[in-house]
Every structure is written in C-alpha cells, then in structure tokens.
Design brief:
By secondary structure, the chain is mainly beta. It is built from one helix and eight strands; from the N terminus they run βαβββββββ.
Length: 124
C-alpha cells in the first residue's frame, strides 16, 4: 500500500500570521484553504479546532501552542517546530513532515492517516 502524497493547490495565499489569519475561520468553523505559511513564529497561540486544507508550512515555530481538535488535510510541514504544543485529538490526513521537531508535543488521541515523516524528532 502506497502512502498518498498531499495534494497542494498550484496557487497558495501567503500568510504572515497564522493565528490572526485563522481567527475568523475558526470562529465560523470554516476550513483555511490553499495557504502558504513561512517563517511564522507563535508562542502560546490558540489554534483550537483549526481546520487547514491544501497548505504548506515552512520553517514555522509553534511553541506551547494549542492545536487541540485541529484538522490538517493535504498539508506539507517542512522544518517546523511544534515543541511542547498540544495536538490532542487532532486529525492528520495526507500530510508530510520533513525536518520537523515535536519535542514534548502531546499527540494523545491523534488520528494519523496517509502520513509521511522524514528526518524529524518526535520524542516526548
């Protein structure tokens, strides 16, 4: 069985601050789609129930952030740091993680489907 690769749209909207950009989407329980987030650094951020589809995250740092019950579909994470963040009960489908760091990250009850992880550190 082959792992399905994330399907990323050809055109992505560049987002400088994921937390601010996603506030309205999260409030309306709508998906954030077709975004590119690069060099975003957030500490103690609240992204509870964030829903992201068709996105690329590159060199982002999310330290002690709350992603509980978040959903990520068709997402590429490259060089990202989720250390000490809460990803409890989150959902990942067709996602790729390369050179990522998730030290102390809470992955309790996370659902992982069609996931590829390379050169990453997920020690608790």
């Amino acid at each position: 069985m082959n792992i399905l690769k994330p399907k990323i749209p050809d055109q992505l909207t560049a987002v400088d601050d994921l937390q601010s950009y996603s506030e309205d989407y999260r409030r309306d329980e709508a998906a954030v789609k077709s975004i590119s987030v690069t060099n975003n650094c957030i500490q103690y951020g609240n992204m509870y129930k964030l829903d992201v589809r068709g996105a690329v995250f590159k060199n982002c740092v999310f330290i002690d952030c709350d992603f509980e019950k978040a959903s990520f579909q068709d997402v590429i994470f490259h060089g990202c740091d989720f250390s000490n963040s809460n990803l409890r009960e989150s959902y990942f489908n067709k996602c790729s993680f390369s050179s990522c760091k998730c030290l102390g990250t809470d992955f309790s009850e996370v659902i992982l489907k069609q996931i590829e992880i390379q050169n990453s550190n997920y020690q608790y």
